[in-house]
Amino acid sequence: MKQAAGSQPGRPLMVDVARLAGVSHQTVSRVLNDHPHVSAKTRAEVLAAIRDLGYRPNAAARTLATGRTNALGVISVDNTLYGPSSMLYGLEQAAPPNYMVAIARLDAFDRQSLSVAVERFLGQAVEGIIMVAPQVAAVEALISLTTDVPLVAIKCGTGAPVPSVTIDNLAGAARATRYMLDLGHETVHHLGGPPSWLDSQERADGWRQTLLAAGAEVPDLVYGDWSARSGHEIGHRLAAMPEVTAVLCGNDQMALGLLRALAEQGRSVPGDVSVVGFDDIPEAAFFPPPLTTVRQDFGELGRRAMHLLMDRIRGVDRFVPSMPIMPDLVVRASAAPPKRRGSA
Amino acid sequence: MKQAAGSQPGRPLMVDVARLAGVSHQTVSRVLNDHPHVSAKTRAEVLAAIRDLGYRPNAAARTLATGRTNALGVISVDNTLYGPSSMLYGLEQAAPPNYMVAIARLDAFDRQSLSVAVERFLGQAVEGIIMVAPQVAAVEALISLTTDVPLVAIKCGTGAPVPSVTIDNLAGAARATRYMLDLGHETVHHLGGPPSWLDSQERADGWRQTLLAAGAEVPDLVYGDWSARSGHEIGHRLAAMPEVTAVLCGNDQMALGLLRALAEQGRSVPGDVSVVGFDDIPEAAFFPPPLTTVRQDFGELGRRAMHLLMDRIRGVDRFVPSMPIMPDLVVRASAAPPKRRGSA
DNA sequence: ACGAGCAATGTTAACGTTCACACATAGGCG
DNA sequence: CGCCTATGTGTGAACGTTAACATTGCTCGT
Predict the structure, then answer these.
(1) Distance from CA of B217 to the nearest CA of A (A)
(2) Is there a contact between A306 and A91 (Cβ–Cβ < 8 Å)?
(3) Would the CB atoms of B105 and A92 count as touching at under 8 Å?
(4) Which H or E run contains B26?
(5) pLDDT of the residue at B7
(6) How confident is the model at residue A2 (pLDDT cuts 50, 70, 90)?
(7) Helix, strand, coil percent content, chain B, rounded in steps of 5
(8) For a 10 Å CB count at each end of chain B, is N or C smaller?
(9) In this structure, are strands A164-165 and A151-154 parallel, antiparallel, or unpaired?
(10) Would the pLDDT of A271 be above 70?
């Protein structure tokens, strides 16, 4: 009981438009795809017919004929985190309006999960994939992945076998560390993010290198899991150490937890301890005290990744390695000179 | 220069699989779609051929033949906010694995923008649309929208002309207000979210009704914009009013800003002023002081919306209006009895 | 033992586009 | 003046799958 072509029910077809406009279906197709060699008069008539009928081309048929799907896939970690969600925002914003952006979330970045997600997207025939892959394991998983669709990674480290865009975490951490050193602190402690994340590693490197370059002692590195909870827990350990006068945190949430722990142990900020965060989430300006932090432009990162992907899809293999985005230091009240300078 | 069917280059086709397995392409199709009437032996052979060839069915062709696209659209506001991003998480989680979830972000919820977004999804032939539409204007825009695909809305208020799932904001606000009243506060002030959001209205209603029921005075309502910044700004006004001893905030971010403002003006929490938030974001436990707040299960909300949509897509019009999700009051340190009871 | 009925498979025709041509008609140039 | 090119349009054949129907060979009840 299929509907006869051109009959009343169902959506209008291209032939219906053609009939109404008094042309062939091919001419309608030409108008739709902005092909040359269509007279202005004909084009106008076709357009009118399209409007009158409320015609909308069938995406599947077009895809079948052209081989292009106008769909992109974004694979991401927990989009509840500030970074990833901001990136997603940028990605969606920069996507061409006629493209569909599909999302898939990954719990773990092992080869298996990643492969499943990619396979799923390939099944939907996306034209390209963007991977928000900040974890070390993701890089390894990527290597073992053979894909025929363009893939770009966000902040995947420089060693990644795929094109990627990054933020200069190293420079950001260095700048923050330098700042506290310049304030007069003998050294700076670091409450890092999970070591499985590349961002954590890079930020830790920037911190370490800066200390070494300044001839400062490099304290043991402690790892949190990005959450305020972990910052709080570790913060209690840090707060108990009198030699701790300055702490660089891997992100602002952990900084919040740390601030809380310091407050609970009666150590004032920035009086006794200076704290600097990372990310500049919108709430950072209202922490107790307002947090000095390293601002990252995640939105821009997303936008760049999308542009890079579209370039690759369109075959524009311009070999611009895309300079890493430079973060800014936002100075607020949480860092200050130590109470006493020059004490050994 | 098209490739001949079955020749070396390009992806393998169904006929290639059929040839290798020694059956017809239709039998391959049957295996792929779990149709009955395929012998175990044949099925195994086909499966083996599929594996050997690395065959993957062409989604567009399947869509063209079946009319089903296995794609869903999610229209949402700023996914940087905690609520929306958590919901997106739940949505993605509950989506059938063979479905593609596409996203579109809206800056404003006027008829125009909404129509554009929906139109775009319709162009991609999604099978259903989920709208995270917490704003009043969205409801109006929805009414003027004629869609032939199933649409469900999240927290769209009860007056919405489409099926929707909601959180019981009213009960949550009532519970929080009641809690502070029971603590001994004469009345409770409310720092609400933007009045254009339904959540704001409902929470304000819950607050107002509870005060009225208790015979307490209903103070003027003040509106923020969900941001800590707005909470801070308005907080300064509130902090200057000595009669303010208890404040219910529309969300946790504004509560943070308020806490900051109170601290800046030397009013202690909960000593001088009690504060209760809304949402229970992960950071709330580490605010100064830890925030008593109304926890909302946004993830569950997303999951329910997805289930509801899938039911409608599959034609299961079970008329379950889906009880609103009941929020919990999480008691922490930011609310306490007032210093002096009974003072007028 | 013989047709009914069902399991297992094959054959052909959609699905709604775009692509590769073929075909007119008109203008420019030797 | 006729040929060659460019413009405008139509015709038929893909694109790769699933749906509908046809066909074969069984088993089963009587």
Answers:
(1) 31
(2) yes
(3) yes
(4) helix B25-32
(5) 42
(6) very low
(7) 45, 15, 40
(8) N
(9) parallel
(10) yes
Closest residue, CA to C1' of D16? B61
CA distance A210 to chain B (A): 30
CA–CA dist A204, A221 (Å, integer) = 8
Query: Is pLDDT of A3 > 50?
Result: no
Contact (CB, 8 A) for B283 and B74: no
CA dist., res. A220 & res. A206, Å (int) = 15
- State how far the Cα of B306 lies from the Cα of B165, in Å rounded to an integer: 10
Q: For residues A267 and A133, which has the higher predicted lDDT (pLDDT)?
A: A267
CA separation for the pair B30, B22 (Å, rounded): 14
Rg over CA atoms, chain B:
27
The arithmetic mean of pLDDT across residues A35-54, rounded, is 94
The pLDDT of residue A343 is above 50: no
Helix-helix angle B14-21:B25-32, to 10 degrees: 100
What is the sign of the dihedral through the CA atoms of A22, A25, A26 and A31?
A: positive
Which residues share a beta bridge with B102?
A: A102, B73
CB A125 within 8 A of CB A186: no
The residues near A337 (Cβ < 8 Å, ≥ 6 apart) are A183, A184, A185
Identify whether the C-beta of residue B204 lies closer than 8 Å to the C-beta of residue B190. yes
